[in-house]
Design goal:
Layout (H helix, E strand, L loop, with lengths): L8 H16 L9 H7 L4 H13 L3 E4 L3 E4 L4 E4 L5 H7 L4 E12 L1 H8 L6 E11 L2 E11 L15 H9 L3 E12 L2 H6 L7 E11 L4 E10 L3 E4 L7
Parallel strand pairs: 3-10
Antiparallel strand pairs: 1-2, 4-5, 5-6, 6-9, 7-8, 8-9
Helix pairs in contact: 2-3
The structure holds 2-acetamido-2-deoxy-6-O-phosphono-alpha-D-glucopyranose.
Length: about 240
């Protein structure tokens, strides 16, 4: 017969804090002090600090010297699916938006031309947007579209969803994409656009999207704030 051991005091503390973080406290609210947690759970201050260190490493709380420990903003879990920024934000109940939108026609150049399977001298539409969720900058996005496929000036319509405009106006719907995700840091200009500290961590997601006919429709570089994003994958094992 096995007897279950009662949970360690530090486990009870961890569970209590996890409960506060998911339900009771709002982002940027202060957690109870180390001293009061130590008293309430009959553990040492060192134990409390260790549990808080762990939560800090997981990005669930942050500390301000001399003020205490606070609840972090929740991360946006992005699943690797062929969705648009607008769809991603709406499915989380957030209001998508775009700031600092610019749109210009430029020669593709070697890298973009290669990704889009067009000549380096062919024209592309370069769209730059700071993507926001409930007005907070989340992602800096550069999209490159072969000008041949989108002859109109898209800029006036880029307050909303690019994918919706491509589909409604140009009959272009993405069917498949190749995507790479890598870690990077924000250079000073990108950090300013994203309202984040320079050299803070970020994800760079590079997508090449194809329509059902196999035409490369978009090459995009999306730079996501590392403190607000995590990538979630559903993975399967062959039977
Ligand atoms: C996503 C795509 C981006 C696309 C944008 C369109 C990734 C990594 N990138 O951010 O390639 O341009 O959606 O969004 O998912 P929109 O339709 O809201 O403009």
């Amino acid at each position: 017969m096995t007897t279950e051991r009662p949970p360690a005091k530090s486990d009870r503390l961890r569970r209590h804090l996890a409960g506060l973080l998911v339900g009771e406290l709002a982002p940027h609210e202060r957690l109870p002090t180390e001293r009061s947690l130590a008293e309430e759970f009959s553990v040492s201050r060192l134990t409390v600090r260790r549990v808080l260190d762990e939560l800090e490493r997981e990005g669930r709380v942050y500390r301000v010297q001399g003020s205490g420990t606070f609840v972090s903003e929740p991360r946006i879990h992005k699943s690797v699916e062929l969705t648009s920024f607008t769809e991603d934000m709406r499915s989380r109940g957030l209001r998508p938006g775009s700031l600092e939108v610019s749109c210009e026609r430029i020669p593709a150049g070697a890298d973009i031309g290669y990704a889009l399977r067009i000549s380096p001298s062919a024209e592309v539409l370069h769209i730059r947007r700071v993507r926001t969720a409930d007005d907070e900058p989340m992602c800096l996005e550069h999209s490159y579209l072969p000008a041949e496929l989108v002859p109109d000036d898209l800029e006036p319509e880029l307050d909303g969803s690019l994918y919706e405009v491509l589909s409604a106006r140009h009959g272009l719907t993405l069917h498949r994409a190749e995507q790479t995700i890598r870690a990077t840091v924000l250079g000073p200009d990108d950090a300013r656009a994203l309202d984040a500290p320079p050299f803070s961590p970020a994800f760079l997601v590079q997508r090449t999207g194809f329509d059902a006919r196999g035409r490369a429709v978009e090459r995009a570089d999306s730079l996501y704030r590392g403190d607000r994003y995590s990538y979630r994958l559903t993975i399967y094992r062959d039977p």
